[in-house]
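Subject: Sanity check before I submit

Could someone independently write out the C-alpha cells for this chain? I want to compare against mine line by line before I put it in a report. The sequence has 153 residues.
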Amino acid sequence: MEWTQSHVVYNMISLVWKGVQLERRYGHLLFGALVAELLAAAHLITVALAALLAANIPGYRYLYRDQCAVGFSAVLFGLKVVLNHDSPGFSQVMGVTLPTKYLCWAELVLASYLNPSASFLGHLAGILAGLLHVRCVEPALRGLAAGMLPRSG
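---
Independent answer below. Compare away.
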C-alpha cells in the first residue's frame, strides 16, 4: 500500500476511534459542531502560522506556498487533544511512557519523523485548535450554560 492510501486508512481508523468516544461524550450535534470548529480553527491557525513564518524567516517565504497543509489530519490531532486533555493515565509511544494528555505532542514529532513531507504546521495547528477548544471554548460554553439555568432560592 502506498503512503497516500495508508495515510487515508490510518486517518479513517483514527476518526472512528476518537469519534465514537467523543460522540458518546458530546452527543451527535455537539460532536458535529466540534469537528466543524476544529476544522475551521486548525486551518485558520495553519494560515496564520504560515504567514507569520513567511514574514519573519526569509527562507520560509517561498516554502509555505509549495506545501499542502489542508487536510483532515489537523482535525484528528485536535480531536486527540479534546479526547485526552483530562486523562489521568499514561500511554506509550515507541517505548516511551508519558502522560496520555501529552500524547499528541509525541505523535506530532513521530508523524513528522516517519513522513517528513507531512504538514508539521498543519498537525501543530490541529493541536493548537484542540487546546483552544478545551481551554477557552468549552469553559466559556459551560459558563454560558450555567448562566441559563434557573436559580433556586
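---
OP: Matches mine. For the report I'm noting this point. The two ends are 65 Å apart (CA to CA).
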